[in-house]
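USER:
Before I trust my own judgement here, I would like a peer's view. Write it directly below this note and I will take it from there.

ASSISTANT:
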Amino acid sequence: MANDKKKPEKAPGLFAQFREGINFLKVENPRAVPISIAAGVGIFLIVAILGIFISSGFIIGIALWVVLAIVSGYLSALLFLSRSANTAVFKKYANEPGRVSLVIGSLTRRSYKGTNQPVAVNPRTKDMVFRIVGPAGVILMGDGAPTSTKAMLEDERRKVQRIASNVTVHMIFCSDSGDGTPLREMEKKVKSFKRALNRQEINAVQNRLAAMDTR
């Protein structure tokens, strides 16, 4: 019966995600939360005192500056917490198989398309290659043993070029050693690439590659 069907679970809300982030930081970096609060309070006091001085006793002006101080302090604390959480996550999972999916998840919330599932996996060595499509073209990211993972990246590059020969393909090997890019710097590296595709082209390339995956 239709009533017997299970309803899909809802994704955690904003406040639930925030609470989970706080709990995670308390374990991984206990100093991050109090420092974030101190930073927020500090920004609030600076903006509020500046506003009171500028307003010269004008009540409405003081009230507006206090509101601005509250918003500035809150956003400053939130920004510091977010950065601390990202740093803690990257540090915790820096050597875990499939760690590149953390970067994929962040990029696909913005202008890139793809999934956090690898397009190629070596079940024996756990080497993986991930793929996303965005303004810079096609981005292939690999993590695993240097030699075998780089070979897998090259194989995937050839597959992409057969489907989309005129599209720029970038390959990034995730590694903390000198022959790769550390996990914490991969998103920054992707954003440093020059723009090569517009929105319509991104959708077209992603659809062609998705069709290739299906086949």
Remarks:
- The chain has seven helices and five strands.
- Strands lie at 113-114, 120-122, 127-134, 137-143, 169-174.
- The longest helix spans residues 59-92.
